[in-house]
């Protein structure tokens, strides 16, 4: 079974560029730690403070392995610290989704 972790971010709309730089860094960090990054999505039209990330895994066990690798990854930890220092993420929620198959 494959799963997709959907991360819903509430961001400071006045720091959109800072969030975009943060998201771009994950595009290389996530695959290096074992996730398949399906993309980061920024607000474009309408609501200006919601961003999304979609990351695929083979299973919840694979996600747990990824999280352990991420916590030990220097680039990942630096990206987390930068977000905390700049405070452009106001909140985030994770939802795990399963694909609908025929």
Characterize this entry briefly.
The protein has 102 residues and is α+β, with helices and mostly antiparallel strands. 43% of the residues lie in helices and 31% in strands.
Report on this model:
The chain is an alpha+beta fold. The longest helix is centred in the N-terminal third of the chain and has 18 residues, at 16-33. It is globular, with a radius of gyration of 14 Å. Strands 2-3-1-4 form a 4-stranded antiparallel sheet. A hairpin with an 8-residue loop joins β2 (36-41) and β3 (50-57). It has 3 helices and 4 strands; from the N terminus they run βαββααβ. α1 runs antiparallel to α3 (74-86).
Strand and helix layout:
Layout: E1 3-11, H1 16-33, E2 36-41, E3 50-57, H2 60-72, H3 74-86, E4 89-97
Antiparallel strand pairs: 1-3, 1-4, 2-3
Helix pairs in contact: 1-3
